[in-house]
Amino acid sequence: MGLLTGFTTILVVIACGFALAHRGILDARSQRTLGEVAFFVASPALMVVTISDIELGGAAANLVASAASLAASFGVYAAVAGLYWRLDLGAVVVGALASSYVNAGNLGIAIAAYVVGDITVVVPTLLVQMLLVQPIALAVLDRHTGRAGGGRAALRRLVSNPLTIAAVAGLTLAITHHDLPRVVDQPLQLMAGAAIPLLLLSYGAALRLSPAPGRAGHNREVAAIAVLKLAVMPVVAWLVGTAFGLDGPVLLGVVLTAALPTAQNIFLHATRYRVGEDVARESILVTTLASLPVALVVALVLA
């Protein structure tokens, strides 16, 4: 019953966002505004209060399983796209990111909260993606496309990313075992409470406002990304997590996180570097539409 209630809660809020967009109450601009408020204010607050409470020693196996599933999907796509399809390096990097970089900061938080009952299960994935995968990928794209600034620009984007700043702040608090003063903690808790509703409303509106997939001529790449993202990643996460002794809600959270859709910021990176834009956009849409049924199957099997 708890599992059904969790998914029903998520779907109802997503449907509200979809309906608001369908009626014209939310347009593309307002949908982005919801996402930006969540990105710059609510989600960072949620990251600080969540990560600061995590037990780092108990998260090691989760971290290994999450990193292994990401690396497997990223590596398989990069090998196939680069060696077999002979795609441009930039397109390979964007496609590999689309096949492995999960929407943990948006949909992942909601699923962890309402299905697993513990937001901290997505934290290791967030840390690996934000502090390791993203800066390396952006540095490669900087060098490949010849953008000014190179590694310096990538470092500047890393240290100015609100979620990264929040993750580092929360991690520092977790390591030092310090508690925030009440005058700081209470506003953060209040803003953190807005994160999940904002993200789900924005997500539902985006589903309604997104163009239909399959028209850009990259069906081969999108199909491969969908299989890797929604099948290979959760299977690898389950195998590695089980091997490291994970079970119960923690294993469920790790596998559900691996089965999340491609993160929207991959399209932002593709747009910024003008490479792989169609593949990124369609991969996000296809994996987003398919991820909730996949997550429901995972939850029913492992719950």
- Could you tell me the radius of gyration in angstroms? 18 Å
Low-confidence stretches: none
Number of helices: 14
Broad structural category: mainly alpha
**Helical fraction:** over 70%
Q: Report the strand count.
A: 0
The CATH topology is: Na+/H+ antiporter like fold
The total number of structural domains is: 1
| Through-space gap between termini | 11 Å
CATH architecture label name: Up-down Bundle
| Overall pLDDT score | 84
Give the overall shape. globular
Order of helices and strands: HHHHHHHHHHHHHH
Regarding CATH, which class? Mainly Alpha
- Strand residue content: under 5%
Largest sheet: none
Per-chain topology:
Layout: H1 2-22, H2 28-51, H3 60-84, H4 89-100, H5 104-116, H6 123-145, H7 150-160, H8 162-176, H9 182-192, H10 195-209, H11 219-243, H12 248-258, H13 265-273, H14 277-302
Helix pairs in contact: 1-5, 1-10, 2-8, 2-9, 2-10, 3-4, 3-11, 3-12, 4-6, 4-11, 4-13, 4-14, 5-10, 5-12, 6-7, 11-12, 11-14, 12-14, 13-14
Would you write up a description of this structure?
- This protein is mainly α.
- It has a single domain (2-302), classed as Na+/H+ antiporter like fold.
- It contains 14 helices and no strands.
- It has helices spanning 2-22, 28-51, 60-84, 89-100, 104-116, 123-145, 150-160, 162-176, 182-192, 195-209, 219-243, 248-258, 265-273, 277-302.
- The radius of gyration is 18 Å and the shape is globular.
- The model has no long low-confidence stretch (mean pLDDT 84).
